[in-house]
Amino acid sequence: MSNVVILVGSVRKNGNTARLAHSFAEGAAKNNNVEIVSVADYNVNPCIGCNSCFTREGNQCFQDDDMVQIYEKLRNADIVVIASPVYFYGISAKLKAIVDRLHTPMRTTFRIRKLGLLLVGAAELANLFDPIIMQYQMVLDFFRLESIGTILVRGIKDIGDIKGSSALKEAYELGTSI
Ligand SMILES: Cc1cc2nc3c(=O)[nH]c(=O)nc-3n(C[C@H](O)[C@H](O)[C@H](O)COP(=O)(O)O)c2cc1C
User: How far, in Å, CA of 20 to CA of 105, rounded?
Assistant: First the structure.
């Protein structure tokens, strides 16, 4: 049994990304402890690149914001799943702020071994997810992590569009596979 944290990058709590993440969580919860962390519930400032976390005890960030609560949730995570809407061919800015703030603890204190990726975008472009997949692959390589898999959903724009999509079942099944 692993501890799984799903970081959901849309502020739309009823949105497509959240629904996809919930399907994955339902499957994953069969054999794991699963927690969903939505950017809608936290205010996290961007990393300012001061690098003071390198030398501070416990490698803690000096910023006293909601990231403190997210660090606690990730401290014992074995698997982290990134779930995001495509925003300008990247992940959402609120989620990127959280990811950037993980840079030092990923290398020092966390024990995360595996990542997963769930993405939703409005366009039908074949290469829609390529920039994010490239980043994902580089992060896997840099931190020597294993991928549990990816679910990429095109042509999904308005709230509710993902309802009835086969991607929800695929996400559930990916969840059951871990
Ligand atoms: C600021 C912004 C930027 C977006 N950029 C893209 C994009 O580059 N490509 C794309 O296919 N969809 C883009 N979209 C559409 C969203 O990815 C799409 O509506 C998605 O279903 C939203 O997910 P949500 O319901 O979880 O919020 C963008 C939406 C917003 C609000």
Answer: 27
Whole-prediction pTM = 0.98
Beta-carbon neighbour count of residue 154 at 10 Å? 16
Q: Supply the range of the domain harboring residue 36.
A: 3-176
CATH number of the domain that residue 158 is part of: 3.40.50.360
Query: What is the number of domains present in the chain?
Result: 1
Ligand 1 geometric centre to CA of 85 (Å): 5
Query: Over the stretch 131-150, which tens digit does the pLDDT of each residue have?
Result: 999 999 999 999 999 999 99
Query: Best of 13, 38, 86, 168 to mutate for ligand 1, by most ligand atoms within 8 A of CB?
Result: 86
